[in-house]
Write a structure and sequence with these properties.
- The protein is of the alpha+beta class and about 130 residues long.
- It has a single domain, classed as Cytidine Deaminase, domain 2.
- About 30% of the residues lie in helices and about 25% in strands.
- Strands 2-1-3-4-5 form a 5-stranded mixed sheet.
- The protein binds tetrahydrodeoxyuridine.
- The site of tetrahydrodeoxyuridine has 13 residues, from strand 1 and helix 2.
- Tetrahydrodeoxyuridine binds next to strand 1 and helix 2.
């Protein structure tokens, strides 16, 4: 992916974060998932009073894509922070890494972005080595 494409995906993730529902943690997360067909699916974290039904932004995006008949993915951009402040990178949780592993190849690109469109990229294999 070009730098411009990566920054575009981060911008979409920042927009997706606006839909985040996180009244318990006040930690808002947004994600933008690029499919091999070139479509982008957005995700945000959605919390619940009972805690365990809470879902992360990354899984929301992946399941949204699956629900729309797409299951081949190229990259995901993730942004997040306390009160929606994306000053720092927001690495995906272990559960989301395992879900990525279920549907994405080792060369799936995971982009950590911030509000200034700075970023770091990793291959899924780097984030979840020796995966189950
Ligand atoms: N969260 C995500 O959406 N993605 C991650 O990878 C890390 C955590 C959400 C879940 C919860 O709503 C909040 O951030 C605090 O953990």
């Amino acid at each position: 992916m070009t730098e411009k494409e990566i920054r575009q995906l981060i911008s979409i993730a920042l927009d997706a974060l606006k839909n985040s529902y996180a009244p318990y943690s006040n930690f808002n997360v947004g994600a933008a998932l690029l499919t091999t067909k070139g479509n982008v699916y957005r995700g945000c974290n959605i919390e619940n009073a009972a805690a365990s039904p809470t879902i992360c932004a990354e899984r929301t995006a992946i399941y949204c894509a699956m629900n729309n008949g797409e299951n081949k993915f190229k990259a995901i951009a993730i942004v997040g922070g306390k009160n929606g402040n994306c000053n720092e990178f927001c690495p995906p949780c272990g559960v989301c890494r395992q879900v990525m592993k279920e549907f994405c190849g080792k060369d799936f690109l995971v982009i950590f972005g911030d509000k200034n469109l700075n970023y770091k990229t990793y291959l899924l294999d780097q984030l979840l080595p020796h995966a189950f």
